[in-house]
Amino acid sequence: MQNDQPGMNERPEMRALVLEEFGTEPVLRSVERPTPGPGEVLVRIEASGVNPLDLKIKAGAAGHARVTPPAVLGIDLAGVVTEVGPGVTRFDVGDEVYGMAGGVGGLPGTLAEYSAVDADLLAVKPARLTMAEAAALPLALITAWEGLVDRARVGEHDSVLVHGGAGGVGHVAVQLARAHGAKVFATGSAGDLETIRALGAEPIDYRAVPRQDYVDKYTAGEGFDVVFDTIGGATLDSSFAAVRTYTGRVVSILGWGEHSLAPLSFRGASYSGVFTLLPLLTGRSRAHHGRVLAEAAELIDAGKITPILDPTPYHLGTVEEAHRAVAEGTRRGKVVVQVGGSAEPPVSRG
């Protein structure tokens, strides 16, 4: 039971989903509610988006995320500021915010009722979105922005190819590129093509259409100005041969393998990698995340970016089911866990 009237040196409790060891299911526990420190705000979390990275962390297969159990899972959030720490001037109590706020590098995750968050990582929630919709966006939105806007400098008249255009990052990238005036093409499986078309991109069935055929058809053999890869592996290799000579830019969010740069070099084109977790892991450039989310909120409220959500309801007591839906690929959009208002009781105490 949550302690609503703490003593002088006692904080109230909250519920949080705690990963006690890798390879196990996290446990719903009662833990002490955090206090915001300098530069932080306390956020009452209303919703938390589920990312494939959460599953890798849970399995112990994400060393780059630097998580040591016991740890609270969850990376994205949307919620309401309830306390403001020393030195914070950008937010007030009652502000609705969203952000990629923790869950890696020793930062507490967002599958909890409250989190003390570095204010630099947050922005005011787009008014047009529900809490669940806002919680679905931060990691995907920042990743797409860093690739397309920061690295590729996408703009009007650019032709952009998004690999995996119906995926969590891909469907945001398609909309972001279009919002910047680009003509967008996107690959996907046969079942993804209608979603891609509805997002405003020209769909390409990657299983049915060879790379050279769609490069010839849509660019007269010249290659795309920007290729944004969300798949990695052989798809990234293929991207090097699908980009425009001299001025083309390839950006990948999964460029972690060994790849030959020869095809790219022979075209005189450029490559950039995106590692969205870096500010959370290092503490550097966190304010850039907040600025990206604030700028993106203007596009969202203008109706240019809308997340696709899986309609299945999940809460803190059914996170295992949410993770299973992501792992098995049965979801129909981004999976979001409703945190605020959940009546599920904690199963144990920390």
From TrEMBL:
Listed InterPro entries: ADH-like_N (IPR013154), ER (IPR020843), GroES-like_sf (IPR011032), NAD(P)-bd_dom_sf (IPR036291), Zinc-ADH_QOR/CCCR (IPR051603)
SUPFAM superfamilies documented for this protein: GroES-like, NAD(P)-binding Rossmann-fold domains
Keywords annotated in UniProt: NADP
Matches recorded under Pfam families: ADH_N (PF08240), ADH_zinc_N_2 (PF13602)
Superkingdom per UniProt: Bacteria
Domain Enoyl reductase (ER): 23-337
Regions that span the bilayer: none
Entry protein name: Zinc-dependent alcohol dehydrogenase family protein
Organism: Catenulispora subtropica
